[in-house]
Design goal:
The complex is a heterodimer.
Chain A: H1 2-17, H2 19-52, H3 62-86, H4 88-95, H5 99-103, H6 109-131, H7 133-141, H8 146-173, H9 177-200, H10 203-212, H11 219-222, H12 228-252
Helix pairs in contact in A: 1-6, 2-3, 2-7, 3-6, 3-8, 3-9, 4-8, 6-8, 6-12, 8-9, 8-12, 9-10
Chain B: E1 2-11, E2 14-24, E3 29-33, H1 40-47, E4 55-60, E5 63-64, H2 69-75, E6 76-79, H3 91-101, H4 106-119, H5 135-147, E7 153-157, H6 165-179, E8 183-188, H7 191-197, E9 200-205, E10 208-214, H8 215-221, E11 226-232, H9 239-244, E12 249-254, E13 259-264, H10 271-281, E14 285-290, H11 295-313
Parallel strand pairs in B: 3-8, 3-9, 6-7, 7-8
Antiparallel strand pairs in B: 1-2, 1-4, 4-5, 9-10, 11-13, 11-14, 12-13
The structure holds adenosine-5'-triphosphate and magnesium ion.
Magnesium ion binds near residues 40, 41 and 81 of chain B.
């Protein structure tokens, strides 16, 4: 455990030293705000109208109108951005021949994988935290429920954990960072869109596809429901992919 | 300290190391000598538990490299061929990270960093970014990283490569100094380097041990001779005796039914005479060739490399 955190700490440090991190964070915050502002404007216009026509009994829900869509948007943006963060994990170590430092240390390979994963997760959590200033605007303009906001963020973080695991996995396959990013993006996108396929498939297959889709497990979180089965799905997805990463790295030593 | 038994490593169909066996005792400084592609780095990677062996066993401090690798990793310090340095890190932060990886207790990390900085002469660059250091200094950081947890055993893969002559001398001195308290296995292409630092030499070529001895022993056993290999189709009695009867032959060894190794004085060119004899006696020449890469040839190669280096420097 100590070794995991030790590796994760160094890894996060190297993010904060690299220009990639700042570029990506700036990009993320910009696009995120860009998508948030219209939703907020729409909401404030509507709520203004609603106060004018209070007698009509319209009640506006800021959670549904602003928070939920902005969380979904954030997921899409991160789908594109996470591969750029995770692509270095193992590809760079191999390319620069630094991997032998970790491999010759008294640290289990699975701890190395876990450390790399946690570092990326920490960085993404930090980015999400920076972007959460948007919640303050919603708080200023309406009375959103706090519970669903918190659980929504938890859900997004879990889902991003899955993307990060896929990215770390992709990075273990190749020495080439660009290829790693491409594989990671394709895998994440695939896990995302099987939810769409689920909608058009017939019921039996649809249910299965829907179960495996990463997005379908996010919705309850944004509604304020933390279902253990959803949490378990995300966590087991992450553990499974990381285990696979471990196997890939271990088997590559034999060749 | 280190015991290697019948170690074989295959990369796909090619074997990099074949049936290697040797031992290194506590406190020894052993040179691992061989030309490019001999399998030095491969062997070292197996000893440091980075690569699994295809066949055979290696034990370090009594622990098996395959089954008890965690124990070995704790007592070994390794400088790989390419120093494993995170280019974007500052020297002392990097060394502190390495210390933590090697389970140096938190409170002792900064003392350990100071110690290796001093030992490797890195005091002046401790706050610099590794990627901006010269190759020689990077090599030193690599060495410092290997020593950070004060390991019992140091494995150094070509520690002086890429350094200027003055730095080479300094690093050699440092290794000699370390050799007083550590068991060291270091690889090199360069014979004189090994003769300066090491008590014992293991010479390998194409994955096989060619010689293994103390330096004095090696010198003594180096008979200045030339060897020919003769393979015949019709093994007959007395071939060995007849070959021995030729002038300037030192000895003839019989290897199997129809394979003979003829050792002669260095300036004798016996091919013609051996061929004539074989034709006359109708042994049927299957093969007649000088044995490639004898110990001597390798020695020659290794010694000339250093000479070339010297000439370039001069
Ligand atoms: N990852 C690999 N895949 C395939 N072949 C390899 C690999 N690593 C090494 N080899 C081969 O194994 C053989 C031994 O290589 P090794 O690096 O151990 O030699 P070396 O003695 O360290 O040489 P040098 O003096 O050049 O460092 C070489 O023929 C090399 O081509
Ligand atoms: Mg080598």
């Amino acid at each position: 455990m100590k070794s995991i955190l030790w590796i994760a700490r160094r890894e996060m440090g190297s993010f904060f030293y690299s220009p990639i991190f700042y570029v990506v964070t700036a990009l993320f915050l910009f696009i995120n705000s860009f998508m948030f502002v219209p939703a907020l404007m729409f909401f404030s216009a509507q709520s203004l109208k609603a106060t004018q026509f209070q007698q009509m009994g319209i009640s506006l829900n800021p959670n549904e109108m602003v928070i939920e869509p902005s969380l979904a948007n954030m997921g899409v943006i991160l789908l594109f951005i996470i591969p750029i963060l995770t692509m270095r994990s193992f590809a760079e170590e191999r390319k620069n021949k630094t991997f032998s430092l970790l491999l010759s240390s008294p640290v289990h390979l699975r701890d190395i994988v876990a450390g790399k994963f946690l570092a990326c997760l920490g960085v993404v959590a930090f980015m999400i935290l920076l972007s959460s200033y948007t919640v303050l605007f919603v708080l200023a303009l309406g009375q959103p429920e706090i519970g669903p906001i918190l659980s929504g963020y938890l859900g997004v973080l879990l889902m991003m954990g899955c993307f990060i695991a896929l990215g770390v996995f992709a990075s273990s396959l190749t020495d080439n960072q660009i290829i790693a990013a491409a594989i990671s993006f394709s895998l994440s996108l695939f896990m995302w869109i099987i939810g769409w396929a689920a909608e058009s498939a017939d019921s039996g297959v649809g249910i299965i596809l829907n179960y495996f889709s990463l997005v379908s497990h996010l919705e309850p979180f944004t509604k304020g429901i933390i279902d253990t089965s959803d949490v378990a799905y995300y966590l087991s997805f992450i553990v499974f992919v990381l285990f696979f990463t471990y196997r890939v790295l271990d088997s590559r030593r034999w060749r | 300290m280190i015991e290697v038994e019948h170690l074989t490593k295959n990369y796909g169909p090619r074997s990099a190391v074949k049936d290697l066996s040797f031992q290194i005792n506590q406190g020894e400084v052993v040179g691992f000598l061989g030309p490019n592609g001999a399998g030095k780095s491969t062997t070292m990677n197996i000893l440091t538990c980075i690569l699994p062996a295809t066949e055979g066993k290696a034990r370090v401090c009594g622990f098996d490299t395959f089954e008890q690798s965690m124990e070995i990793r704790k007592v070994i310090g390794y400088l790989p061929e390419t120093p494993p340095l995170y280019q974007d890190m500052v020297v002392d932060k990097f060394l502190a990270f390495s210390a933590g990886l090697r389970h140096v207790p938190r409170k002792k990390i900064s003392a350990a960093v100071d110690r290796v900085l001093q030992q490797c002469g890195l005091g002046d660059v401790r706050h610099r970014i590794i990627g901006r250091l010269s190759k020689g200094y990077q090599q030193r950081v690599g060495l410092a990283q290997a020593m950070i947890h004060d390991p019992k055993i140091l494995i150094l893969d070509e520690p002086t490569i890429g350094l200027d002559p003055i730095q080479i001398i300094e690093i050699r001195k440092l290794i000699q100094e370390l050799g007083k308290a550590h068991t060291i296995l270091l690889s090199s292409h360069i014979l004189p380097e090994v003769t300066q630092i090491c008590q014992r030499v293991i010479i390998i070529n194409e994955g096989e041990i060619v010689a293994m001895d103390t330096l004095d022993g090696l010198n003594a056993s180096m008979r200045h001779s030339r060897r020919l290999e003769l393979k015949v189709r019709q093994p007959a009695d007395g071939i060995q005796a007849k070959l021995e009867g030729l002038g300037r032959v030192i000895s003839v060894q019989m290897r199997g039914q129809n394979l003979f190794v003829i050792e002669s004085e260095p300036d004798a060119h016996l091919q013609d005479e051996v061929a004539r004899m074989a034709l006359d006696q109708q042994w049927g020449i299957e093969e007649l060739k000088p044995m490639d890469m004898t110990l001597e040839d390798i020695f020659l190669k290794l010694t000339t490399e250093e000479k070339e280096v010297r000439e370039v420097q001069a």
